[in-house]
Amino acid sequence: MHCSHCRLEFKKEQLFLCVIDGVEHYFCCYGCEQVYKILHSEGLDDFYIKINNSALAPVKLSDNEDVGRFDADSFTKRYVKVNGAYNEIALIIEHVHCAACIWLNEKMLSRQHGIIKASLNYTNNKAVILFDSNIIKLSDIILLIRSIGYDAYPYDPLLQEQYAHKEHKEYYTKMIVAVFCTMNIMWIAVAQYAGYFSGISSDMKFILAIASLCLCIPALFYSGSIFWRSAYFSLKNGSLGMDSLVISGSSIAFIYSLYATFVGEETYFESITMIITFVLIGKFLERRGKKMAVDSLDRLYASIPVQIRVIRNNEKIFVAPEEVNIGESVEVLPAEKVALDGILQSDYALCDESSLNGESLPIYKKKNDIIYSGSIILEAPIIYTVTHDSSSSLIHTIINLVEESLQKKPKIQEQANYISGYFSASVLCLAFLSFFVWAFVFDASIQRAIEIAVSVIIIACPCALALATPIASVVGLGRAIEKKILFKEARLLESIAKATTIIFDKTGTLTHGALQVIQCHGLDNLNKAELQILFTLVSQNNHPISKSVKEFLKKYNADITETTLNNVEQIQGQGIIGSFDKLYLGGSLTLLKAYHIPFSDNLNLNEKILFCFASQNELLAYFLLEDILKEDAKENIHILKSMGLDIMMASGDRLAPVKKIAHTLNIDIFYAEQTPLDKANLIKELHESKKVVIMVGDGINDTIALAQSDIAIAMGSGVDTALDMSDIVLLDNKLSSLQQSITIGQDTFRLIKQNILIALFYNATTIPLAMLGFVIPIVAAASMSISSLIVVGNSLRNKNKN
Predict the structure, then answer these.
(1) Could you give the CA distance from residue 26 to residue 34 in angstroms, rounded to a whole number?
(2) Per-residue confidence (pLDDT) for residue 623, from 0 to 100
(3) In Å, how far are 50, 298, 378, 419, 420 from 753, measured between CA atoms?
(4) Which residue in 170, 266, 678, 767 has the most C-beta neighbors within 10 A?
């Protein structure tokens, strides 16, 4: 008998009887009885129809003593977000194994008073629940989930690394086993094919077949367990995909080969092993790409300070960002990163916001200006008032949006997978039809009918169709690597071929990303002492302008050294001063004005960045700096336009330099002073217009936009987070590689479509021949190999293109 809830089979005496509404039910345990009663009382008896009589795990009622922690303030601050008038929590639901589990959890949660909305993602078992905390406590939601046989714990991206590593290790082990089996079984196959044409004793033939069987079993049933699982759930949900065809063809060929081993016929164990291995390698690379996405999130989380300095009762104490209340005062020292958004209390602050806006110049802030989390404080300590908690500050918002974008990012399915859904069902039907017609209509022997059915399966085995995309992709990826272009996934070759719009970040993408001295005046007139004083001033200032001037001076005079200055002082947002035999200054025109040092009016009209060096009486030298355009930028923007692509620029820099770059490059659509959120919203708007968007960037500030785009491209000089978040990396940091990557994608996508047509034409002509009995299994295997070689040969045409 079966338990009325979990459907597992037991002896009748092991079950206990319970009458519910006049109907007898049998249960294996108290937990199953309680869950059944809950579902019945809620009118959710359809659950037992949806599970299609498949077995569930017996219910183990959890120890509910720990649920109090879900209502703790520390837990709420860390995991619960405010969403309008309600609270929102992301949970991982354990023991979810099928669509019925998804249905049951969503139904039970949605019916609960106080829960506004509940959605559960089957791919990662992540449930997002919107609830009214005034009506229902979070601990009550956990108890509800546990009451129906599941369990839940808070979703934490930092824990996802453990799961990704475990999955990566599993795929890697299975791939190694499959490759080992394939390499060894092919040596045996050489002897088998040689024996078929030149003769071989039955004993030796049997020994080789047994050896092949021993190598095929781990490849098919251990390494191939991923495909078995996928095929099972596809069949259960009423669909067939490439995994279904791989498993159906492999399993039928395996059963026939097993039979052929003991009757002296030809076996096909090597074909089975090869199919499993090649497709598994593709799956492994896909999982590896997902792990890199998890790693990039970890890098973003690692950039948030774990402790900050809060001023409470006139004392400075270290606490976690989650424990800081809105309205409290926080101190940040030079070179430290701001963890929470706030309002500046100090008179001034110099903030490096390059991780937010991508621009190399720091921003001068006055009292009551906004201080953003993620920025780095330069020059002097500051005190500011917190206005946003840890969950709503800018850097956390960026991380959350990146995470959501990675989850929602559409995955363009290969055309072969789309076709195989129909192709798989058709091939299986034709194979079984051939068997029944030959066995019962033509009165052929069962062995002959099996041979014909197996020939249909083998000749239609998805080698050519399965290789149509990967082989063309491998050749395209190899061509890209030769050009110093790294595609992280093969599917991106198809995606980039369909692109319609390119958005460029400015700094580090169209420009070199660092200030450079392009002109200097008066430097040759300085004596040795003055040169040393200038070098000392810029060496003691952390401002990027000072650093650029320092590097220029090192190249100007390799033997230059620092000297000793007295009364060195940083002047807020203006520069630095120090005394030697008299007062010397290094900084902006504002600093010269403050000390009444005369200078030419022409310097005021200069649009470039200016650094001045003066004594207390006169201007001695000045430097003009600029983030200069890359040498190949204009030519490649013109080529991209000629390819029919819409070109845009979105930068966090000021309007004047952005407008100048756009005018130089003939970019008609450009946006200045863009935050990371602005860039992401721009891409969303383009998606609403059905545009396929390429985003080209190089900094942390670009990560949201990179994640939101259809194809994310990072320059090789970019930060680690941008490189990890990107889909394509231009290793040589050249814009010409961007144009080449699009060309390679277009060439590869065209070959993929040709390969699919070749595979379908092959099947359309050979399957009828196999059904009519003109093809024996070994000829079917040979023709299958020939079709694969044709596909490979067509793909290799892409190898030698420029």
Answers:
(1) 12
(2) 92
(3) 39, 38, 55, 12, 14
(4) 767
pLDDT level of residue 602 (50, 70, 90 thresholds)? confident
Q: Which helix (H) or strand (E) holds 27?
A: strand 23-27
Helix (H, G, I), strand (E, B) or coil at 165: helix
Distance CA 204, CA 187 (A): 15
- DSSP states of 715-765: ETTS-HHHHHH-SEEETT--THHHHHHHHHHHHHHHHHHHHHHHHHHHHHH
Decide: 169 and 751 in contact? Cβ < 8 Å: no
CA 246 to chain centre: 27
Structure-token match 């009622």, residue found: 61
What is the DSSP track for 406-439? HHH---PPPHHHHHHHHHHHHHHHHHHHHHHIII
CA-based radius of gyration for the chain: 34
pLDDT in tens, 329-363: 999 988 888 989 999 999 888 888 776 655 666 78
CA distances from 331 to 303, 309, 312, 315 (A): 18, 6, 11, 11
Encoded tokens for 53: 């009589």
Rounded distance, CA 412 to CA 668, Å? Answer: 30
List Cα–Cα distances, 740 to 303, 474, 482, 621, 705, in angstroms.
34, 16, 11, 45, 22
In this predicted model, what pLDDT tens digit does every residue of 220-231 receive, in sequence order?
Answer: 999 988 888 777
Q: Which amino acid is at 4?
A: S
Residue 292 CA to residue 280 CA, distance in Å, equals 19
Q: How confident is the model at residue 414 (pLDDT cuts 50, 70, 90)?
A: very low
Do the bridges between strand 115-121 and strand 86-94 make them parallel or antiparallel, or are there none, so unpaired?
A: unpaired
Q: How confident is the model at residue 266 (pLDDT cuts 50, 70, 90)?
A: confident
Residue 62 and residue 151 in contact, taking contact as beta carbons nearer than 8 Å: yes
- Spatial CB neighbours of 674, under 8 Å, sequence gap ≥ 6: 357, 650, 651, 652, 682
Q: How far is CA 22 from CA 18, 19, 25, 47, 51, in A?
A: 10, 6, 10, 20, 24
What does DSSP assign to residue 337? B
∠ Cα 329 335 338 (to 5°)? 40
Q: What are the residues facing 696 on neighbouring strands?
A: 504, 713
CB 646 within 8 A of CB 500: yes
pLDDT confidence of residue 376: 87
Closest C-alpha among 481, 371, 437, 388 to residue 732: 481
Name residue 17's beta-bridge partners: 26
Residues in a beta bridge with 520: 623
Please give the helix or strand (H or E) that residue 234 lies within, else none: helix 225-236
Instruction: Report in angstroms the alpha-carbon separations of 240 from 231, 236, 247, 421.
Output: 7, 10, 11, 5
What is the DSSP code string of 351-390? Answer: EE-HHHH--SS-EEEETT-EE-TT-EEESS-EEEEE-S-T
Cβ-in-10-Å burial (0-12, 13-18, 19+) of 10 comes to middle
How much of the chain is helix, strand and coil, in % rounded to 5?
A: 55, 20, 30
Per-residue b or e along 390-417, where b marks 16 or more CB atoms closer than 10 Å to that residue's CB: bbbbbbbbbbbbbbebbeeeeeeebbbe
Q: How many CB atoms neighbour CB 191 within 10 A? A: 16
Could you give the angle at which helices 446-459 and 736-771 cross, rounded to 10 degrees? 160
State the Cα–Cα distance between residues 406 and 696, nearest whole angstrom. Answer: 17
- From 715, 733, 740, select the one nearest 725 (Cα to Cα): 715
Q: Are 101 and 150 in contact (CB under 8 A)?
A: yes
Length of the chain: 802
Q: Which residues pair with 348 in a beta bridge?
A: 366
Cα 495 to Cα 503: distance, rounded to the nearest angstrom? 16
Q: Is the pLDDT of residue 267 over 70?
A: yes
Dig out the tokens for 517 from the structure.
């001295």
| Orientation of helix 736-771 relative to helix 777-795, angle to 10° | 160
> Mean pLDDT for the chain?
79
